[in-house]
Design a protein that fits this description.
The complex is a heterodimer of chains A (351) and B (549). By secondary structure, chain A is an alpha+beta fold. Chain A contains seven helices and 13 strands. In chain A, strand 12 and strand 13 form a beta hairpin. Chain A is flat. With 549 residues, chain B is mainly alpha-helical. Chain B folds into two domains: 326 residues, Cytochrome Bc1 Complex, Chain C, CATH 1.20.810.10; 182 residues, no CATH class. The chains are: A alpha+beta (351), B mainly alpha (549).
Chain lengths: 351, 549
């Protein structure tokens, strides 16, 4: 199948930097020692200007160093014992568990730090300081090796026939392209299709506005002028199950609402807006009573609540949707329907 | 007579060798030389943080319930007793207040996570600014960038698990970022979260849990192993120094010196994490309360490695397009998806891009100082400045509040800074590096200033310069690139520096053909601008200044 190996083309890969004269000379001067078969040879400490080599200090100093390390290891051992004692003796509920955390953590840290310091001191004061020099091996293989491997690969590839057999190649491509599809299909039931879920909330005509704090429906007069309440639709009060429904109800002083449409969608200076930021979906929570600005704590989008909740600052691109409200016969606030546009952040199908 | 210990050791080694033939491999490993420099410890901090994360994380899984089932809390933490919450949050409270040492393990785990990502980031800076990513270590750089991205995701997944108010806010934003992806975003968000936010189906926390404790750690473990094996195989880089060449490693043997040192370092890193876990409170989820889709706390702040995304979301102007019934929210898609995509991809391609621009095909084992390659250093600082402004942008409300600035002006100042700041940083860094190089050239060619003023017979005053010791001169010359053949011809008239000897090509002959080649020439000119000012090695100099007076 395969022809005899072709003569090798001129190499354009890789360049072997020769050792510079200066570097070679410097190395020669400092490290002229025979190396072992792995290209490694030690360099004595004195040639590295290391004055204090632990391997050459007097025995008393050596003994002292050993004790220094030993004391650190003893501290580590004692702290470990202390940990056990603290675990058993300290009241785990004292100061909300803080005492326990300080004691266990402090002793654990002491043990570990003493252990670490001991090891470092061991290396510094007891182990010899001389260095080793090791030759680096070339990252590339000898040329014959490279060629032989390339030839082996190409020979195998030719035997596979992917280059020459068209039916084989194309059918394999088709199978390779289609085989992942079942794997992708298996992911289908990771979640439901969005359908139009992002366009709707739990609000419907006649549903009462329930305060999330008190869990009670809100009546006209419950909120003071300048006041604000977070509300959920009655019967769907759990925010985590209706994450798009949280709504804020604001009461303005008479005449403060600057937009006719806003006033007409509200009821007697009360207006309701989606609480879900039109930017990244955080529940907006910082209301400035004097300026009527509502600020999102996540990315600081600011909305003018007295003027259709228009964006006056920040990364939000759209105003907050308004919920049309009125009051029922008993004076409770109710929604006149769902939001007229999707609430929360934008998505591809939003339009 | 051999001692008992010696006999045991010999028998042990022989037992292994009988089965693996490992004698020569082990001997080479014991003798493997590791160079010393404090900056080589940065990667070790990352490695050991990962070890700590595995140990403490495994402990936490013994108590954590990855479930969104709603339960009523009745544990030791009185303020939340009787409150309805998910089992995930309740079990986090349980391990914090009713498992002795549980809070300590949680806090060590979180601190180690912060340290893990941070040490990776600083380690990457070291590798970048010293040129350690150059051939042959390009692939290891790619693995490293992947580790950085995965570590960030892993951290985010981890602190999102307890289902407290803060983590829920982060997930809400993540959901919105997914929604913002054109065409597939809505479906993607539904499939990942298993429903609309915050996962009414209850599937999301268990999914996040298995991603956090199995999938990502598994990939991290595999990639870290590959990273280490490549380092082991290619040997560590080193700074130029006495006796160090492109062809050797100078340092301590793996056994015993490196083993003792690195074990000490493992204990120290663990000890620091334990100390922080004991005395520095982190992520006190019991103060935030359970997640509630109608609430958010002011000043919600993610872990540090998410700040840049938070900042990019905050600084982005409010652009959105509507057409043919579709919406693209540029205000989220650009800062949340496109921008990090570009940033990480630039990190991936930089080594190849630089090698292509500089036509550098050589192997590099000796490191460069930041000043030695002013353009690369300036580009790195350009990127860091961009990142730093995003990072600060992620806290614009905190900054405004702390310094009593107007929030709007703070944001606007940062919007301007994010555009011009990196360019200013680039210019300053480049001049700075060139200035340092210039100073080094002076020291190399004219020696160190001595402070001795001498009057010449002609009446002229000169300051006497002391030449550097020969060793120092050689190293400095190497660092400045005079001695290396690939830079030696930098300043030649036609703007080419020949890397070509021996590779069969003849670069620099004739004018470049084609738009790509011309772009490459232009980029090369940009990269080497002013590198080449004084064309001279020490040998070319006035001999008077080099001889000791």
């Amino acid at each position: 199948m395969s022809d005899a190996p072709k003569p090798r083309p001129a190499r354009k890969i890789g360049r072997r930097t020769p050792l510079t004269d200066k570097a070679a000379a410097a190395q020669e001067a400092m490290f002229s020692r025979p190396s072992d078969d792995a290209g490694t040879h030690p360099v004595p400490a004195e040639s590295l200007d290391i004055e204090h080599d632990p391997a050459q200090v007097d025995p008393r100093e050596d003994k002292f160093a050993e004790w220094q390390v030993g004391v650190l290891f003893i501290i580590a051992a004692l702290a470990a014992v202390g940990f056990v004692v603290a675990y058993v003796l300290i009241d785990p509920n004292a100061a909300l568990g803080r005492d326990m955390n300080y004691a266990l953590g402090g002793l654990f840290a002491t043990s570990l730090l003493a252990m670490g310091a001991g090891f470092v001191l061991w290396a510094k004061k007891i182990l010899p300081h001389d260095k080793m020099v090791q030759e680096r091996h070339d990252f590339f293989s000898p040329e014959e090796e490279e060629i032989a491997t390339e030839d082996t690969f190409l020979k195998g590839f030719q035997e596979m026939g992917l280059g020459s057999r068209r039916v084989l190649r194309r059918s394999l491509l088709a199978a390779g392209a289609l085989l992942p599809i079942p794997a992708v299909m298996l992911l289908r039931d990771l979640g439901p299709l969005p359908h139009t879920r992002l366009r709707h909330t739990a609000w419907r005509e006649g549903i009462k506005l329930v305060d999330v704090e008190s869990k009670l429906p809100i009546k006209i007069g419950d909120i003071e002028i300048g006041g604000i309440a977070t509300v959920m639709p009655e019967g769907h009060e759990e925010p985590d199950e209706n994450a798009l429904s949280p709504t804020i109800l604001i009461r303005f002083a008479p005449g403060e609402i600057r937009s006719k449409k806003e006033a007409s969608w509200g009821y007697q200076d009360h207006v309701a807006y989606s609480k879900i930021c039109s930017h990244a979906g955080c529940p907006i929570s910082l209301y400035e009573q004097q300026t009527h600005h509502l600020l999102c704590p996540c990315h600081q989008s600011t909305f003018d609540m007295a003027n259709d909740a228009n964006v006056i600052f920040g990364p939000a691109a759209r105003r907050l949707p308004q919920l049309q409200i009125t009051v029922d016969g008993d004076g409770y606030f109710v929604a006149k329907g769902d939001y007229s546009q999707p609430v929360g952040p934008s998505f591809w199908e939003r339009g | 007579m051999a001692s008992m210990g010696e006999t045991a050791a010999r028998q042990g080694l022989r037992y292994v060798d009988d089965r693996f033939g490992s004698a020569s491999f082990l001997r080479r490993s014991f003798n493997k030389v590791f160079p010393d420099h404090w900056s080589f410890l940065l990667g070790e901090i990352a490695l050991y943080s990962f070890v700590i994360l595995l140990l403490t994380g495994t402990y936490l899984t013994l108590f954590f319930h990855a479930s969104t089932e709603v339960v009523t809390y009745n544990g030791s933490y009185a303020p939340l007793r009787g409150v309805q919450m998910t089992d995930a949050y309740a079990s986090t409270l349980h391990m914090s207040f009713d498992v002795r040492g549980g809070l300590l393990m949680r806090q060590i785990h979180h601190w180690a996570a912060v340290l893990f990502v941070m040490s990776i980031a600083v380690h990457m800076m070291r590798v970048f600014f010293t040129g350690a990513f150059r051939k042959p270590r390009t692939i290891n750089w790619h693995i490293g960038v992947t580790l950085f991205i995965l570590a960030t995701l892993e951290g985010f997944a981890g602190y999102s698990l307890p289902d407290d108010l803060l983590s829920g806010t982060g997930l809400r934003i993540a959901y919105s970022v997914m929604e913002s992806i054109p065409v597939v975003g809505t479906y993607l968000a539904y499939f990942v979260f298993g429903s609309d936010f915050p996962s009414t189906s209850g599937d999301f926390i268990p999914r996040l849990f298995i991603i956090h404790v199995l999938l990502v750690p598994g990939i991290l473990l595999a990639l870290i192993s590959a990273h280490m094996m490549i380092i082991w195989h290619q040997k560590h880089t080193d700074f130029p120094g006495p006796g160090k060449t492109e062809h050797n490693v100078v340092g301590s043997p793996f056994f015993p010196t490196f083993v003792i040192k690195t074990n000490g370092f493992l204990f120290l890193v663990f000890g620091v994490c334990a100390f922080l876990g004991a005395f520095a409170q982190i992520n006190p989820v019991w103060l935030y309360g359970p997640y509630n889709a109608s609430q958010v706390s002011a000043g919600s702040q993610p872990d540090w490695y998410i700040f840049f995304l938070e900042g990019s979301l905050r600084l982005m102007p409010n652009l959105e397009s509507n057409f043919w019934g579709h919406t693209i929210s540029w205000n989220i898609f650009v800062p949340g998806v496109i921008l990090p995509g570009i940033m990480f991809n630039l990190l991936y391609v930089y080594p190849s891009l630089e090698a292509w621009i500089t036509k550098d095909k050589a192997y590099h084992n000796l490191l460069q100082r930041p000043r030695d390659v002013p353009t690369r250093t300036a580009l790195g600082v350009f990127g860091l400045t961009f990142y730093a402004i995003l990072y600060l942008g992620g806290q614009n409300d905190v900054l405004a509040n702390t310094f009593h600035w107007s929030l709007q002006s703070t944001t606007w100042v940062m919007r301007v800074l994010i555009i011009i700041g990196p360019f200013i940083a680039y210019y300053v860094t480049k001049r700075w590096a060139l200035g340092l190089r210039h100073k080094d050239e002076e020291r190399l060619h004219h020696g160190e200033e001595t402070g001795i003023i001498r009057r010449l017979p002609s009446g002229e005053y000169i300051e006497v310069h002391e030449p550097l010791p020969a060793q120092r001169q050689a190293i400095l010359a190497m660092q400045l690139g005079h001695d290396l053949p690939d830079h030696a011809e930098l300043p030649s008239g036609n703007g080419h520096h020949s890397n070509g000897q021996g590779n069969g090509q003849a670069p620099g002959i004739g004018r470049p053909v084609g738009a790509m080649a011309r772009a490459r020439e232009a980029l090369e000119g940009f990269f080497f601008e002013r590198h080449d000012s004084p064309k001279s090695g020490p040998g070319d100099d006035d001999p008077k200044t080099l001889t000791r007076p």
